[in-house]
Design goal:
Blueprint: H1 12-27, E1 40-45, H2 51-62, E2 66-70, H3 84-94, E3 97-102, H4 107-114, E4 119-124, H5 130-144, E5 150-155, H6 162-171, E6 177-182, H7 191-199, E7 205-208, E8 220-223, H8 234-240, H9 248-251, E9 259-261, H10 282-300
Parallel strand pairs: 1-2, 1-3, 3-4, 5-6, 5-8, 6-7, 8-9
Helix pairs in contact: 1-5, 1-10, 2-10, 3-4, 5-6, 5-10
The structure holds phosphoric acid mono(formamide)ester.
Length: 305
């Protein structure tokens, strides 16, 4: 039985296969409409979500399966003090596969160790968000035609932004990928990514504070919101929350074919006037999230069509 905790749980070859499957699902949705007949997905979300939970549910419904679960810790027996280990042992009796989001780093890993069914990490604290990474990879691959030979700008809250950490881990495995890390001093990438991932693998990167200094060099700009829920005090959040706002004027500095991605939700960091720019692909990205989650469910349940 396989779980998904980090994008590195799949080899590059396995990732390519999964992205190929997701592309086939996008092109031929009817072919997969009954692939999961009789199967159940449990979505156990201890932290708020719109896209991840609902795209998982849409993915299982599109495959002909059913969904059950909870959308907050308060509406589960976690509110009475039940451990994750006990919860997953029980969920294993009710469902065939589980997607779990939790505010604590490592929670999904703990669950996987006691689970009788595959567990998918749907975001654990500030640590990893592998299915967002699969979504991001599919978006870049589908719209750029490649995952290597590019310069990616990651902008915003690089300290707490788990999608950024997962994406860097995944992209360093492709050839000639360079990063420009754009953040204020307080929200710089953690040393376990800078030193243990980027430097340890001799990946080219630079750290800058001004978005304008990076724009013209980028093939992809990955915007992120400042993660209010992970700040220790509100004052710091308020001071930093509008540090970056991507506007039409800033987009004029970018290449004609640069893509703007954002895992969403957006707060203020991309002005709504940018939404009409054909390079702004963050809503398309959310759609790709359904296809990759369909492909992931099929892969972990070892269902071939
Ligand atoms: N991108 C993402 O994880 O969005 P949600 O928090 O709405 O699931």
């Amino acid at each position: 039985m396989r779980h998904l905790m980090s994008p590195l749980d799949f080899s590059v070859e396995e990732l390519d296969q999964l992205l190929e499957l997701a592309s086939d699902i996008e092109k031929n949705p009817k072919k997969y409409a009954h692939a999961c007949d009789g199967k159940k997905l449990a979505t156990c979300f201890y932290e708020p979500s719109t896209r991840t939970r609902l795209s998982f549910e849409a993915a299982m419904l599109n495959l002909g399966g059913s969904v059950l679960g909870f959308a907050s810790a308060d509406s589960s027996s976690a509110a009475k003090g039940e451990s994750i280990s006990d919860t997953i042992r029980v969920i294993s009796c009710y469902a065939d596969i589980c997607a779990m989001r939790h505010p604590k780093e490592g929670a999904a890993l703990v669950a996987s160790q006691k689970s009788g069914i595959p567990v998918i990490n749907a975001g654990d604290g500030g640590h990893q968000h592998p299915t967002q990474t699969l979504t991001d990879l599919m978006t870049i691959r589908s719209l750029k035609g490649r995952l290597g030979n590019m310069t990616i700008g990651l902008c915003g809250d690089l300290k707490f932004g788990r999608t950024v950490h997962s994406l860097i881990n995944a992209l360093i495995r492709y050839e000639n990928v360079k990063f420009i890390l754009i953040s204020p001093e307080e929200l710089r990438i953690p040393s376990y990514i800078r030193d243990d991932v980027l430097r340890a693998n001799n990946i080219e990167f630079e750290e800058v504070e001004r978005l304008e200094d990076a724009m013209e060099k980028l093939d992809v700009l990955y915007m992120t919101r400042v993660q209010r829920e992970r700040f220790f005090n509100e004052e710091d959040y308020i001071r930093l929350k509008d540090f970056y706002i991507l506007t039409k004027e800033k987009m004029e500095l970018a290449r004609e074919d640069m893509l703007v991605l954002h895992p969403l939700p957006r707060v203020n960091e991309i002005s709504v006037e940018v939404d009409d720019d054909p390079r702004a692909v963050y809503f398309k990205q959310a759609q790709y999230g359904v296809y990759v989650r369909m492909a992931l469910i099929l892969t972990l349940l070892e269902i071939t069509v």
